Amino acid sequence: MNLVIFGPPGAGKGTQAKKIADKYNYIQVSTGDILRNEIENKSEIGLIISETINKGNFATDDLVNSLIEKFASSIEYRNRMIFDGYPRNVNQAKNLENLLIKTKQKLKAVLYLNVSRETIEKRIKGRVTCEKCNITLNEFFNKNEILNHKCGKSYLKKRIDDNIDTIIKRYDIYMKSTKPVIDYYQKNNILKEIDGSLEIDEITSKIEEILHV
Questions:
Q1: Do 146 and 154 contact (CB within 8 A), yes or no?
Q2: pTM
Q3: Considering only CA atoms, which of 11, 13, 20, 27 is closest in space to residue 205?
Q4: At what angle are helices 44-54 and 61-72 packed, to 10 degrees?
């Protein structure tokens, strides 16, 4: 069955989604990666996305929904997707529900990583991603890993949207738009809240407990 993992920017959604995907043979459907690919390809959509993100805003629902539908409609990905960073609001949540009904799929759980803004700021300010192996590390928390990174430090880059002003704006927008989504999934008894300030392995263990129920 499919999963949703969401939380504020910098909550560790991508890290946990990758762990789940690798261990349980899920397909990680990351809206962030999808959008960044469009930007890197310098497509017409990518230029619009780049301008929007650099202003601290999110891509429009219509745009994101259309990109997600391509994955949800794929037979290859059926009932083994983990949606990373989607849905961000109730409109997107309802769109995902309709897509899964349309393709005769189900949603097992919605994993919500709840993290304070103070923790998020520190995480994102120090975040670097390897352009070669795609691993994400933190200059505050992973000093040894960065020093001994197998691909070399030169491949570790900060994301263009990782600056403090953008972080604060994105966090505030996210929390405002996501509160109704939390309520939406709580009513459906499918929301599983996890303390996102825990260590990575601790969060992974809690997620695995949920998946094994």
A1: no
A2: 0.73
A3: 20
A4: 120
First to last CA, the chain: 13
Q: How many Cβ atoms are within 10 Å of 95's Cβ, its own excluded?
A: 21
Residue-range domains of the chain with CATH: 2-115+176-208 (3.40.50.300)
Give the tens place of pLDDT for each residue, 9-37: 778 888 899 999 999 999 999 887 888 88
Alpha-carbon span 15 to 22, nearest angstrom: 11
CA 87, 51, 114, 181 dihedral sign is negative
